[in-house]
Design goal:
Chain lengths: 336, 336
């Protein structure tokens, strides 16, 4: 008996020795954490104060042209150096913790969401793309089932909750990506908020005649939408991969639900699918507006959904059209 | 002009200094990252060794004499202590997020790396709960006494869903940072989210009208109670933390915990009244579901959910009361 116990005791002592080593290492780690935290604070403070002074200097230099050629040259040099410095500050800040914007503050609080090295930023972006693709596939399946097999309001409600949750989660993840240097802009962020709102309104729509009139159209539209977005994710990520390897796009560029300028290189075939989806949104909104004019109309959801679909159509269509027109304009001088 | 150049020189020097500090920072950040990886892997290895040791201990424990038994119990308690220390150490190391946080946020690290940051985050969480509780109370009062529309009810329900979802996210982050919130007090937020979600989909109708006032009155009482809890618990926790008897990261909860016997016993009747109101809600809903003119699935689902909430809340609180009685009994026995 004691023999096995002595071997146990030996084992225990070796584990204990390792444990003491761990404690020392952890204390050293906590010290280093404090050092780093001080460095972060001093870097951030220095960047803020320098940025302020540079902006003041720039605004006082803007109107000056100098009394001689040499002076003018010196002034121009200073102005361009100011710009370089300001850009460097933005790059430095991608590696320093910062306060969250309003939306992230509301949802997460003040936890820092800055990923502190390039690989984690890229890995996070990759994960975001996978999340979009997987959830879209699930939504595709559920809308298929709801359309062809099961006709219960309960299952519809689950689909709507999933849509709502999906768009809310997208907005959170995109805010984190923007905080990490991704350049997603304008409509492509805002339209997720509108889609979340739309899913919320449909969720509250009671099961009546109007709902039944619109249901199949909405499910077919969701199915098509999920399908197009899967296509977009798949082809866009391949294209972005190629362009990044050629150094023509930034590492933190994302796949979006629309058409962007870099997509002319090989993804033009997606345009008709996209325009068809936009016009389906217009058709949804027109049907809903027509329903709102029927004498039995009493549900506010009809008009609200009609409005949302209309805004979605306008935003999507005109943003895509802008890309299209820009391309035409840039090609015109070549044909002359 | 020369004034500008002098100022510019000064800024260039500051800029060079900043670049050096930033370079040093990036270097130290890399060292820190490798230290973090080492610490995490050592902790994992130790955990595994301790698990193996525990197995061997339980095997020898069956066949040994009294002295050996004492040694074994001693080692067992030291193992438990070490596991607690590992939990505390990991509160300062970045780690993979759990399933829930991974789904919502992705792989962004939510570990706050300094005590002040953790405490500030906890403070912020408490304030968020307080403000939202007050807003929800006013919302429920408005819906019950002033505005009797389904739309305002929907807005109130959406606010509830959003509030409970955000609580679950923030609590997951707090747990990742070393807070020891356990079991029912976390799950019951998920159940409440589900409840509010189902309320959201309940269409306007005679059943809904019958339950509406009861639900709104219950929400007002609930918010009032949570406000009381927050107010008195945070004062008590502050006192206990100053005495060193509670951890910095202990939170106010919506129930009764063991440390609350020191001065907050008066809250118990209020809590039990709230629990029994949940039981009453559940019974009313079961009765509504049994009527002939009830055809909405929400009624039965809500009845079940309120029952689950009642059971969880009531039994968890009774357990705390029971433990206190046991302790008092032991004390009396010791005196005798």
């Amino acid at each position: 008996m004691s023999q096995s116990l002595t071997s146990l005791q030996d084992e225990w002592e070796s584990v204990d020795a390792e444990y003491k080593q761990l404690q020392e290492r952890h204390t050293m780690y906590l010290h280093k954490l404090e050092e780093i935290s001080k460095l972060q604070n001093s870097c951030s403070a220095s960047i803020t104060s320098q940025r302020r002074r540079l902006k003041e200097m720039h605004s006082s230099l803007v109107d000056k042209t100098g009394t001689s050629d040499r002076e003018a040259e010196a002034l121009d040099e200073i102005k361009s150096k100011i710009k370089v410095h300001l850009n460097t500050f933005s790059e430095m800040e991608a590696y320093l913790p910062k306060k969250n914007g309003l939306y992230l503050s509301l949802v997460l609080g003040n936890v820092n969401v800055t990923l502190l090295n390039k690989q984690s930023k890229f890995a996070y972006k990759d994960e975001y793309e996978k999340f979009k693709l997987c959830t879209m596939a699930v939504l595709l399946l559920i809308s298929f089932i709801c359309y062809f097999f099961v006709a219960y309001r309960f299952l519809d409600a689950i689909l709507n909750f999933l849509l709502l949750w999906y768009y809310c989660t997208l907005t959170v993840r995109e805010s984190i990506l923007i905080s990490n240097g991704s350049r997603i802009k304008g409509w492509w962020v805002f339209h997720h908020y509108i889609s979340a709102f739309l899913s919320g309104v449909i969720l509250t729509w009671p099961d009546g005649d109007f709902y039944k009139m619109f249901r199949n159209q909405f499910l077919a539209y969701s199915f098509y939408q999920s399908f197009v977005q899967c296509l977009q994710c798949y082809y866009q990520s391949g294209c972005l991969y190629r362009l990044r390897a050629l150094g023509e796009r930034h590492n933190m560029d994302l796949t979006v639900e629309g058409f962007q300028s870099w997509m002319w290189k090989g993804l033009t075939f997606l345009l008709p699918f996209l325009f068809f989806g936009h016009f389906w949104q217009l058709y949804n909104s027109l049907c809903l507006f027509r329903m709102a004019q029927l004498p039995e109309y009493k549900e506010w959801q009809v008009l609200m959904c009609g409005l949302c679909f209309f805004i979605l159509f306008l935003g999507n269509f005109f943003t895509t059209l802008a890309v299209f027109l820009r391309k035409l304009v840039s090609q015109k001088p070549k044909s002359l | 002009m020369s004034k500008f150049q002098a100022e510019w020189q000064e800024m260039e020097e500051e800029y060079q200094q900043l670049q050096e500090t930033h370079k040093l920072y990036r270097q130290k950040l890399e060292e820190l990252t490798s230290l973090q990886t080492t610490c995490s892997s050592v902790i994992n290895k130790q955990r595994k060794s301790l698990k193996d040791l525990r197995h061997s201990l339980s095997r020898s424990g069956k066949t040994c004499d009294e002295n050996d038994l004492k040694l074994i119990t001693d080692i067992r308690s030291q193992i438990k202590e070490k596991e607690n220390v590992f939990f505390d150490m990991e509160a300062y190391l970045p780690k993979r997020n759990g399933l829930y946080l991974n789904l919502v946020l992705g792989n962004v690290n939510v570990t706050l790396l300094s005590n002040q940051a953790k405490f500030a985050y906890k403070d912020e969480y408490e304030k968020f709960k307080l403000y939202m509780t007050i807003i929800l109370m006013f919302g429920a009062i408005t819906c019950l006494f002033f505005l009797n529309y389904r739309v305002t009810d929907e807005i109130f329900n959406f606010l509830l869903v959003w509030y409970y979802c955000t609580l679950t996210i923030r609590e997951s982050i707090l747990m990742s940072n070393g807070s020891r919130i356990k079991g029912w007090w976390v799950s019951h937020h998920y159940v409440s989210t589900f409840l509010s979600g189902v309320m959201l989909t309940w269409p306007e109708g005679p059943m809904y009208q019958r339950f509406r006032s009861q639900f709104l009155a219950f929400s007002i009482y609930q918010s009032f109670l949570q406000f009381l809890q927050y107010y008195y618990q945070s004062g008590c926790l502050y006192r206990l933390r100053a005495l060193g008897e509670r951890s910095q990261l202990d939170l106010t909860v919506e129930g009764f915990q063991s440390w609350m016997w020191r001065g907050l016993t008066f809250l118990l009747p209020f809590l039990f009244f709230g629990h029994f109101w949940q039981l009453y809600n559940s019974v009313s809903l079961f009765r509504l579901a049994g009527r002939d003119d009830c055809k909405e699935w929400q009624v039965f689902m809500l009845a079940l959910t309120f029952l689950v909430l009642f059971l969880g809340n009531f039994l968890t609180t009774v357990k705390v009361v029971h433990q206190k009685f046991q302790k008092n009994k032991e004390k009396m026995q010791k005196k005798d």
